[in-house]
Structure prediction request, 450 residues.
Amino acid sequence: MIHTFKGGVHPNYMKAPQVPISVVAPPAEVIIPMAQHIGAPCKPVVQVGDTVRMGQVVGDNPAPVSAPVHSSVSGKVVAVEPRPHPLGDTIMSVVIENDFRDTPCDDLKPLTEEEMKDPDVILKRMRDAGVVGMGGAMFPTHFKVRGGIGKVDKLIINGAECEPYLNGDHLTMLNFPEQLLKGIELVRIASHVEKAYYGIEVNKQDAIDLLNSLHPEQYGIEIVPEAVKYPQGGEKMQVFAVTGRRVKPGALPSGVGCNVVSTRTCYAVYQACYEGRPVIDRIVTVSGSAIGRSFNALTRVGTPLGYLAEQCGGFVKTPRKIVLGGPMMGICATNFDAPTIKGISGVLYFTEDEDKSVKDPHCIRCGKCIEVCPMNLEPIFMYMYYTKGDYENLEKYHVMDCFECGSCAYNCPARMPLTHAFKTAKLMLQAKAAKEKAAAEAKAAKEAQK
Ligand code: SF4
Ligand code: SF4
Prediction:
């Protein structure tokens, strides 16, 4: 049986999983931003002039929702200062001059077999190795898994990789299948659940067959084949496809007893526990019309985006836009000096040919945006209320439940900038709520002084 969800679209997938993993030569200088996760940013724990080893912690924060960051090369710290961040703005970063020796740091030893049966030891290792949601969410994995203990009875591993272009998960399945199954088993043990369900779209049948040939049941894993449809990899879509449970608007998957963890995150957990290796690299799909070819590049964290393009043969056309992640939900980067971080699964360099926006678009009321919204929202009305600045109706039409998947905009024949509008609308509502909260607190403080 093939599992799926209601709505969604079928974009041109543009995938190239047949392109083998290539190793990007590490740059002369890596830039390690202190913010590579949701939660409290790290503070640098090294100073200019320090010598660091590959895998050494260079930033940390004891806050519960945080994860340390590590040097991806060995060398010398040459700067601790704000640098451009790939997601915008500048962020405190540790800049390391590469000595090209890759002298390893052995602070993290591989766990013993006994230790790998202990959920607390695994959770601590996830944190110490800086494992965060590497599907793009970048939520610290130790916190997410610990938060689900006692509430979650179904662990779902996201193997959909439904965004066009991206191949890193598929290649991880094909090249490291046993390691991946062991990583999933560790996340399952840490989650205190009996079974993990690995949802994989059937356009990766070769990976499904390979994983099934390794008897996933011995690791407490069942492979769940899923329809090829975007956004199958959305957390709520995965939960519904695998379990038939519906996550309520505004709620998390844990509200219906589920936790969703990405493929690459599970592989990082394997490396952390079996190899004592923190998150210092990952497969990044490099593609787009400005590059002209596709690469599945094993890239050190902290590699500048411009250098990455050079290593992939440079540009064949002038790049206009850099997209981090996939083209549907990815974020635009503006600076070639900004580095890759743990959560970046793809870097797409596009020319102006991909710019499909039209001047002054007009809705033709065809309803095609409503047909495809996997959240059962009504984008046509949300857009109308956005243009009017009507906060009340934006809330009434549940704009906060939009997870910006882009399906509506993709399906809109009038090319209305729907996703962009909803992203802005959500920020507007958040700002309004924060302003109201501050005003209420100020009023309460004034009352208390009377
Ligand atoms: S798909 Fe586009 S044109 Fe059609 S109703 Fe929705 S917003 Fe309007
Ligand atoms: S309204 Fe939001 S969730 Fe629905 S299709 Fe559009 S972008 Fe996706």
Remarks:
- Residues 373, 375, 377, 379, 402-408, 418-419, 422 surround iron/sulfur cluster (ligand 2) (CB under 6 Å).
- The first helix runs from residue 119 to 128.
- The chain is about 30% helix and 20% strand.
